[in-house]
Amino acid sequence: MDRRAVTPRRVALSLALLVSSVGSVAATELSGSATLTSDYVWRGTSQSDEGPAVQAGIKFAGMHGFYAQAWGSDVRFAPQTAASHELDLVAGWAGPLSDAFALDAALTHYRYPGAAVDLDWTEFGATLTWRTRAWLQLAHASDALASGAPGTYAQVGMRIPVDDRLWFEIAVGRYWLHAASGANDYTHVQAGVV
Description:
- It is a single chain.
- By secondary structure, the protein is mainly β.
- The protein has one domain (3-193): Porin, CATH 2.40.160.
- The chain is built from 1 helix and 12 strands, in the order H-E-E-E-E-E-E-E-E-E-E-E-E.
- The protein has one helix at residues 8-25, and strands spanning 27-37, 41-42, 45-46, 53-62, 66-74, 85-96, 101-111, 121-130, 134-141, 151-161, 167-177, 186-193.
- Strands 1-4-5-6-7-8-9-10-11-12 form a 10-stranded antiparallel β-sheet, with helices on one face. The protein has a two-stranded antiparallel ribbon with strand order 2-3.
- A hairpin with an 8-residue loop joins strand 11 and strand 12.
- It is globular and about 50 Å long.
- The termini are far apart.
């Protein structure tokens, strides 16, 4: 796809139209979050130079599974980028496919307001979940990480219940980045307790 065809203005307009159409269907839920984290890790790499980050988000969920959200975080990239904030604008649909399976599909536009270079990019992704215990996530961008080259990400994970309130979670992810992007493909593993 021609990189010039997906402009921030077009993405913002698309998100605004989706929010408008979802809002006209009748709001069912508005929620928000705020977090102070010791490190902002995304797909296995630190986005805050292994330092703390303040994060906040707001989500509007309409009827029939459609939703829109905005989420932001502090970031610390290479000094020449002058990037200090990330703003993710998301429009998507989430809902059950059957008693066992659920799907969440979304278009995400990553913005870095005030950056000295153009770091903005857009990605389509979907996560298929089985009984909230296992998931498969796939995402693709024609301009991955604002590199001008495509990239595809996949993750498979599972949650293992320890008791009614405690779960062990493990996931393996792989990011395939086109050689023209200047970045190497990589694999990461994450584990935690929820």
